[in-house]
Specification:
The complex is a heterodimer of chains A (117) and B (109).
Chain A lengths: L3 E4 L2 E4 L5 E7 L6 E7 L5 E8 L5 E2 L8 E7 L2 E6 L8 E8 L8 E3 L3 E5 L1
Parallel strand pairs in A: 2-11
Antiparallel strand pairs in A: 1-3, 3-8, 4-5, 4-9, 5-6, 7-8, 9-10, 9-11
Chain B lengths: L3 E4 L2 E5 L4 E7 L6 E7 L5 E8 L4 E4 L2 E6 L4 E6 L8 E8 L3 E3 L3 E6 L1
The chains are: A mainly beta (117), B mainly beta (109).
């Protein structure tokens, strides 16, 4: 199946700093990518939908100024957690839908674990 | 608002048993339904994708069914193995993917 890569897989940062997470579709083009957040022992919660060449669409309750999303190309979307605080510590996962496929299948990255001290 | 429920929340079975995981959803206006596997601390692995026009999909020991009108899907795992131990997530795709809380499966050797 298609491959989605996330980087970094884990990051530890100090409170107040900003952290950027990359999501790449390695062998397909993705006009739409999705960012999820997962707290321990809970399911995935959609944060935002990232559209190539346009502004991201955020879910209710997600601060767009806090979680900056950029989808600059058909293979790359980035999530930047600005001025991170300990409550932002979580597992962040991205997914991508292949632009040309009509199955609608979503492929997921391996996730990025953020720990804010 | 789409809501997805998975039952049971956790399941522990001896190796070799056949088992069924259940998923229900409230809004039948969906494009497809996917079953995923997640190992601890890892991302998601897609297991099966069922389009809204399909009734079931099979891959190896896995079989997933979909009854869109009643808002239900089941994942059947035949001859379970310890390596099947993981969290299984059901996700329903309308305009966006909505996940259930998952079923934590443990297969004992």
């Amino acid at each position: 199946g298609a491959v989605v890569s996330q980087h970094p897989s884990w990051v530890i940062c100090k409170s107040g700093t900003s952290v950027k997470i990359e999501c790449r579709s390695l062998d397909f083009q993705a006009t739409t990518m999705f960012w999820y957040r997962q707290f321990p022992k809970q399911s995935l919660m959609l944060m935002a939908t990232s559209n190539e060449g346009s502004k991201a669409t955020y879910e209710q309750g997600v601060e767009k100024d806090k979680f900056l999303i950029n989808h600059a190309s058909l293979t790359l979307s980035t999530l930047t957690v600005t001025s991170a605080h300990p409550e932002d510590s979580s597992f962040y996962i991205c997914s991508a839908r292949e632009a040309r496929a009509n199955t609608g299948e979503l492929f997921f990255g391996e996730g990025s674990r953020l720990t804010v001290l | 608002k789409q809501e997805v429920t998975q039952i049971p929340a956790a399941l522990s079975v001896p190796e070799g048993e056949n088992l069924v995981l259940n998923c229900s959803f409230t809004d039948s206006a969906i494009y497809n339904l996917q079953w995923f596997r997640q190992d601890p601390g890892k991302g998601l692995t897609s297991l099966l994708l069922i389009q809204s026009s399909q009734r079931e999909q099979t891959s190896g020991r896995l079989n997933a069914s979909l009854d869109k009108s009643s808002g239900r899907s089941t994942l059947y795992i035949a001859a379970s193995q310890p390596g099947d131990s993981a969290t299984y997530l059901c996700a329903v795709d309308g305009n966006k993917l909505v996940f259930g809380a998952g079923t934590i499966l443990r297969v004992k050797s």
